Amino acid sequence: MDWSALTYITILILLLLPMSAPDDRLAADKPLSPGTTIVSDGGAFTLGFFSPANATPANLYLGIWYSAIPELTVVWVANRETPVANDTTSAPMLYLTNTSNLVLADGNGGHVFWTTNITTTTSSSSSILPTAVLLNTGSLILRSPNGTTLWQSFEHPTDTFLPGMKIRANYKTTTGISWYPGSVLMILLQGASPTAVIQARSSSFSCGTGRNQCTVAPHGRDTSLADGAAETRYVLTYSGKFQLQSWNNSLSAWAVLGEWPNWECDRYGYCGPYGYCDNTEVLPTCKCLEGFQPASIEEWSSGRFSDGCRRKEVLHCGDGFLALPAMKVPDRFVHVLNRSMEECAAECARNCSCVAYAQVNLSSSARGDSTRCFMWSGELIDMEKKIGGNVAGSETLHLRVAGLAASGT
After folding, report:
1. d(CA 122, CA 140)
2. Class at the top of the CATH hierarchy for domain 22-120+128-155
3. Are 277 and 385 in contact (CB under 8 A)?
4. Nearest 5 degrees, angle CA 279-CA 384-CA 274?
């Protein structure tokens, strides 16, 4: 046999052999099981099963972690609320279904621990199955046969925010983000004004009503930093801190570049009803609004402010308004659409139950109302006095004060 014929036969055999799936994706006929991993193209991230350090019992979780960082640093967890027992009786598997879903189940398929749970029009008889690919950004992507993205882990974050991630939510909805159930939760409230709240067990922190101050944009891969720059991420810690971290190779540890909140006074509602955090002080502290006094002098003096403040005098309908500049406006507002400053003030003055109003100016609005009229009729909660008179996240709050003439508006 001449060499040309042999070469032809060799190529033909190679073409007929089944192609193995790339290491960055889950093959439909080869489920992922403990001890095996998927590595992103570029090697930045790994998908596989892991057990948290010192966990008792040694439960298994399906997650994504940094490949090159020696300290196991998990950036995403699938079955965060349904751990898998780490035994050999029925090892878990992650597999693709012909209904375009990722499913994590026990070896017998009798118990499902986690699934993408998406609904598509893909036919169960289709010979072309969806694909699951781990990108070098750290996102696990599920694609339909025609290339459409059906699901991605970036839209279902846990406690870590990576470059390229976005927080998405519709109006009047919340997005929950947690690792260990009940420990840390981040809620993005989308209403007339976006408010981000970090809740750690029994305490909460607010990023600021009326402003998008919790935008996640850490530097790192896919940003302007040069190749080889340290990995950087935002993390919600177990204690409820929101940290910007960067990996330090020399120390072999995550270095904290920034942390929020900086003060206890920044906690959501820390100063109680009608109390506010005065950030103009060297050490931010709680104070009562004009016309109010601590509800409990004893509690206030001992550094416990949750009871907040109460009015010194009974409020009447004809009382006027005091302008309080450079304030982060309270939570629990009512948004009145399409009102000018004068109309907003007049409407609140006519309403005897209206205790405060503010005109919050934003550059854009999903409702087409860039100048927003906010009104409050109940307790005022979660306020701050900002440093300076014209800073991001601050507005002028007009507070109805007992005994103040109406002309004070």
Report:
1. 20
2. mainly beta
3. yes
4. 125
